[in-house]
Amino acid sequence: MDWWSNSSIYQVYPRSFQDTNGDGEGDLVGVISRLSYLKSLGIDAIWLSPFYLSPNNDGGYDVQDPRTVDPRFGSMEDAVNLIKAAHRSDLRIIVDLVPNHFSTEHQWFKAALKSLPGSLERSRFHFYDGKGEGGAIPPNNWCSIFGGPAWSRVIEADGKPGQWYLHLFDSTQADLNWENNEVKEDFEKTLRFWLDKGVDGFRIDVAQGLVKEEIFKDHRDPEGLTRALRLDVSDMDRFERESLLADVPFFDNEGVHEIYRSWRKILDSYSGQRMSVAEAWVHPSSRAMRYVRSDELHQIFNFDFLIAPWDAEFLVSAINKTLSEVGQVGASPTWVLSNHDSPRLVSRLGGGELGRQRAKAMALLTHGLPGGIYIYQGEELGLEDGQLEDKDRQDPVFFRTKGVDKGRDGARIPIPWSSQLSNYGFTTTKPWLPIPSDWQDHCVEAQVDGDSHLALYRRSLHMRKLLSRQLPTSNEITWIDTPKEVLAFSRGDDFLLYANTGGESLELKLKSDSQIILASSAQAQLTSGTLTLPAESTVWLGKITK
Ligand code: GLC
Ligand code: CA
Fold it and tell me: Is 438 exposed, middle or buried (0-12, 13-18, 19+ CB in 10 A)?
């Protein structure tokens, strides 16, 4: 089996993980200093969000040089040391690759600004003349996913407003033109650069976006579309949203697959099972499987659980859909509960103690499914989104939507390690985002007792490993008949999972003679074949030999 097929991969957002040089921002040496913590969780690999040279307008997803380490995170030597130290602890390292755009500080963009319309330098990006009198209207009406127009106009050498360039995200993230061979070659160079340094894989940012085929096609509702894409959907009709997402001119074009086939060849040419995972939001979700055909990428994040309500019926259909879709192309399923772009799981499931209880149950459900899981730093601590004042916000989404969308900073607050140390042991100085003053109980150090969020994650992650050795290697699950607020399934003869998404504790008669091996609630019990399944909880049953 490939190592990623049933692995637990932990996302480190380096800026918010651990500061070691007292500048208020996490760094690579900080990640090294916490490797024993990461190892103790029972994970298999670490995915690092970008740490490359960047003006940091979008948390490093605005890359100025993909083959250089940003001094804010340390040096190339630190990166190599991190890869080596992780490998000594038997942890793999996945790094981010951001192929949709470069920072406008990248030397290519600077060269493009100094060059003439139609030049080679400009052809690496999407530069076009505007429409209307004097070219004052952007080439099309697309909006940036972060809000505002998707085009910005440059000043030409003669000092006059000139061409426009495309940026699906911030205006400092210029979209690359993948029809240009130099772009292709440069990314192949970056892949090899990090593979040679020993990384085990890549997370591909905006993997659905690289190829733009319909630049001159206006969209019928560009603003609605970008809201739908930002998940800012509270007041949007569900059908309208679906129909908008089904027709995105700049996403999921056929040409992207040729790029992934060429990358797959590079990955396969290295020894040691190197992998890739796509961040690709596509609609309908069945199209996602095209990214993980056997000669393309290895995994694709399954975001169904990232937006799923805590509702048995919804979860059952999401699980069925995922298993059947990946099954068709022979890829392994993945499950994602949170990441640096989404609200924290506890907040999304209602916040407070109830949110925390549900988040534990949701995690235990997810960790009991076949396939690979992705955990975002702090998810294991049961953190909520931190409340921030507008003056502290840094996400370009907040600025580009003029504060209508508060952005993603709440989920990016630094990790609280210790309640004894100032700034929770994250830094010795002011952290780059303020850490809430009431997080003492959520610190790593404070979560020693067996009922804590952290203890549950540790147990379930370790037990997953045992399970993956003892359960059938197929991704098959068998559903068990239950009341409608419960979902239950078995995997092989030795593992059963029951999740109660309802607000009432239930008594269920079980047919098999299993025992409880793990539960998200201390009130779960099994006596003479009757399972007490507490409200908002998940229970694992089985005969697992340690
Ligand atoms: C991805 C990243 C997100 C970033 C965007 C633009 O969605 O996860 O953080 O803002 O791409 O690069
Ligand atoms: Ca630092």
Answer: exposed
